[in-house]
């Protein structure tokens, strides 16, 4: 794998760098660095405006085919964009769930009507999305979802509860995994529905986390409705579509994550130089190891994205790698901060960015599929080992 820029890629990098320098001014200059794990509440309105400016200039959905509003950028060009985005300290995006999860899913599994209806709103950041997968009794064990949907004329009627739904409080739509055939069990009889959030049958309740913020939510569906045509894939084949979405989340989506990771590691390194922690050989070694691990993660993602077809079970390797890396990065931040990292900035619970990082990343190895689930997937579907005994 050649990670150096060729002439075309070098020119693309200059274009990205010049555009960011020209437009990260005024109100957007003040938005630099806003967002990130445990900080999604920061500057939401200005970040949304920034995302829409990116869309106006063709910087959203870079890897999508041109017929769907993208640039057909190569994997390397997408990586270049996100690297320069990180170097510019641009604000964390707000439309990523639609751009990186639902959009590629609709391109792979959606009907032409669904693509015409929903993809332009994602490209232009005019409609925001959230993901309705996890439930109180079905988190990493996604096949155990109990949210139901039944057909009523030209609509589906949805009842149930989702939890840990990121950004549901600002989303216009939710892609929901629901059971449409009650006679089937586990992954059979599930369907993938696109459900509008702004309706009487949908209630969103924020979940206050250890960080004091509430980007996660509970979502209750009480006879919520969506059009009959808003099923992605065949009715009853939602498991295949849902796994496709998870593959995209752990593939292209990880490029965006690395924007944040690289910025965080640079901040930790700067803090170590400022407070003298860099002189501790053990901490200096851990910082160096974190840099190496991040480069290895980058190469793994590039190799996976470079393979033919959408990411498969191998994407569980990526989830396992980035979750453990990021949790370790939060621990490293606290160790570099030293004793001062134990003190709140202000009463009653004013946390600095490193304290938020540490607390938020405790969940990284749980949400989106726990480490245990990912290891089982790797063992059974990648390595071909025998399945664990089922109760």
Automatic annotation (TrEMBL):
Keywords of this entry: FAD, Flavoprotein, Oxidoreductase
InterPro entries per the UniProt record, alphabetical: Acyl-CoA_Oxase/DH_mid-dom (IPR006091), Acyl-CoA_Oxase/DH_mid-dom_sf (IPR046373), AcylCo_DH-like_C (IPR036250), AcylCo_DH/oxidase_C (IPR009075), AcylCoA_DH/ox_N (IPR013786), AcylCoA_DH/ox_N_sf (IPR037069), AcylCoA_DH/oxidase_NM_dom_sf (IPR009100), Mycobact_Acyl-CoA_DH (IPR052161)
Signal peptide range: none
One protein family per Pfam: Acyl-CoA_dh_M
GO function terms (MF aspect): flavin adenine dinucleotide binding; oxidoreductase activity, acting on the CH-CH group of donors
Acyl-CoA dehydrogenase/oxidase C-terminal domain boundaries: 236-383
Gene3D superfamilies: Acyl-CoA dehydrogenase/oxidase, N-terminal domain, Butyryl-CoA Dehydrogenase, subunit A, domain 2, Butyryl-CoA Dehydrogenase, subunit A, domain 3
Domain Acyl-CoA oxidase/dehydrogenase middle: 130-223
Cofactor(s) of this protein: FAD
Domain Acyl-CoA dehydrogenase/oxidase N-terminal: 7-123
Key word Flavoprotein present: yes
Superkingdom classification of source: Bacteria
One Gene Ontology cellular component annotation held by this UniProt entry: plasma membrane
Family designation: Belongs to the acyl-CoA dehydrogenase family.
PANTHER family to which the protein is assigned, alphabetical: ACYL-COA DEHYDROGENASE (PTHR43292), ACYL-COA DEHYDROGENASE FADE29 (PTHR43292:SF3)
Entry protein name: Acyl-CoA dehydrogenase
